[in-house]
Amino acid sequence: MSLSGRNDGKRDNVDISSLLAGYHDNLAHMTRNEAIVSAIDRAIDSGTLGQGARLPTVRALSEALDVSPSTVVAAYSQLRLRGRISGTVGRGTYVSASAALQSDGGQEAEQSAWASVSPQARPPWRRRTVLTSANRLQTMYPDALDCSRGKPDTSLILTELVRRAQQAAAVDTDAEGLQYAGPVAIPSLSELLAPRLVADNIPVSNASMVAGTSAQQLMVMSLSIAARLMPDRRHLVAVEEPGYQTVFDAFEYMGFRLVGMRLDEHGVIPESLDEALAAGAIAALFTPRAQNPAGVSWTPERRAALAEVLKKHPHAIAIEDDQFADIALTRPGSLLEGPAAHRTVYIRTFAKSIAPDLRTAVAVVRPRLAAMLGEAKSLMDGWTSLHSQNTLVHVLEDTELEQALSQSRESYRARRDTIMAVLSARLAGTGTRLSGTDGLNIWIRLPFGVAATDVVDNAASAGVLLVSGEPFYIRPGHNDVIRMSISGIADHEAERAASLVADAILAGNERQPISIPL
């Protein structure tokens, strides 16, 4: 088949080889059908594929690219929905007239202008990549087990407790409760949280609680304080790598640059923290328990070792995101105890344990930092709703809370244990490495030569949805890891989900020849 690229109405056939280069270039950071869509988009936009050009049949393209026909069908369907191609069964698939118009001069000028934009000003790519992939796969495979999203299990959200708490808070509401307020958590909330924090080895003596609407808001305010305290230093923040992709995007959106801290089974490696702070980072973000996406947690010994590193770098602010606190399995304590206590922001949220839309978080900080955090909060959005805080108070007072938290904790633990056991047994000897002792995610480092994009597509076709691990890094180029979330499946589905994932990884492993250089 040949392609002239003419826009004269003649329906030329496409040389499949003209799409191969673009497809293979995209595989490093896309799933297979996304790579096909992008390669065809690029060919249309560049004029290589003109109006009326006939695309390869599903069978021809699937054989040329060594992908399943369903992958090509999905790509063609996506392009057809966007108006880039058209056609009917038995008559062929062609580049549409509207696609050619979309490719005219304005786009070239726009791309030229875009090339001059600073990388920090470009739209966040990580969260968008995860959401786009998850939404696309769910649309294509609506009946598949969904292990692509890190939201809490809807069945474990404490709906009845929240409903009762909201009703009680509404009854309690008076005019003063609807007035302007300050950033400090209301006394009843502080009093209820204090014993819970102490039980988790979080020191609260000589500390204040600042209320926020989310962990991310409190993190951003903490970084703004670090930047104001150190105006002559680079805006560089140390983050766990792999780490939470939305926070990466948020920090870059603020103008911060990221430096990674390596992880092992106990969280951030102290030597890596030392390197990041020595490189100039003015703040470091940690997830003490149930880290997303690796599922690792500190030990008390690791926490103490990190504190000793921070002691060597007295300029740096430490931020702890204890996002899984009330249903976590471990209690490693906080950097609020130790030499960096006066410059530590411990953040506790309730989205995973109670309900995301509760929209209340609390930062525990020593007095000097509390004053600065309170000032930042006052200037950003004033205060966190007293009604929301009072609702959380009533949830924490509910006599059924501890039983509900225990049920959530046990359900997540059972799923993790089942999946880890199945994957460990099925993938033994392949070089696959697993982590995930707490939280909502299992992190899968694939055998040498197995591509995450292939595994994601294979697994989706088989009936389970996953996410490539690439967006959980600072930079693209990691096509060898998978995040498997456990919150979108029921307890009884965990074994099947793990078996399907193992099948997808083994299928990729069988196709990849491994050569060892001499």
Automatic annotation (TrEMBL):
The keyword GTP-binding does not apply. It comes from the Bacteria. Keywords: DNA-binding, Pyridoxal phosphate, Transcription, Transcription regulation. Residues 30-98 form the HTH gntR-type domain. SUPFAM superfamilies: PLP-dependent transferases (SSF53383), Winged helix' DNA-binding domain (SSF46785). CDD domains: AAT_like (cd00609), WHTH_GntR (cd07377). The keyword Transcription applies. In the C-terminal section; belongs to the class-I pyridoxal-phosphate-dependent aminotransferase family. This is GntR family transcriptional regulator. It comes from Devosia yakushimensis.
